[in-house]
Each structure stands twice: as C-alpha cells, then as structure tokens.
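Encoded backbone
================
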Amino acid sequence: MVARHCKEALHVVVERKTRLTKISKLNGCTAVRMTKREREIIALIADGMNNKEIAQQLNIATHTVKSHVHNIMEKLDLHTRLQLSKFTREENL
C-alpha cells in the first residue's frame, strides 16, 4: 500500500476542499486529490451504502456513482469497495 508518511500526506490532501483532481508531489510522496463529490461518495461507501443508495442520497444517476467509484479506486490504487472501506477506517477519513 502507501508508506506511513505518504498516508499522512494523503489524509491532509483528501481533507482539503479543492476541485483539483491531479496527482501532485507532497513531501516526496505522491498525494491524491479528491473532489468534494468523491469525498462524499467515499464516506457513503464507508457507511455501507451501495451505488443505487448513494445515487438516491445524492440525487445523481447510478452510472455517475459508478464513474466516481472507479475514479476513486484508480486514484487510491485499490481494487474493491472492501479495500476502500478498510482504507477509510484506517485513515479516519
């Protein structure tokens, strides 16, 4: 996964309220920037919601949720929702 100091950098960047989605260097680590919508979806996945429930909660299409989930997984180099949920709990996101 990501080295400990990189996780801390990621945590800081994920918390920032920015629309930027580019990957940037921070303290020698690759830090991932999440959009506000991606942060919302991460929180809802961590709460155990499926794509349909997330779509209804946010008033967006299920396909849009799937796209956001795909982008999140790519940015964090994760492969399953379970990994994403575990990551958010470990990092207190």
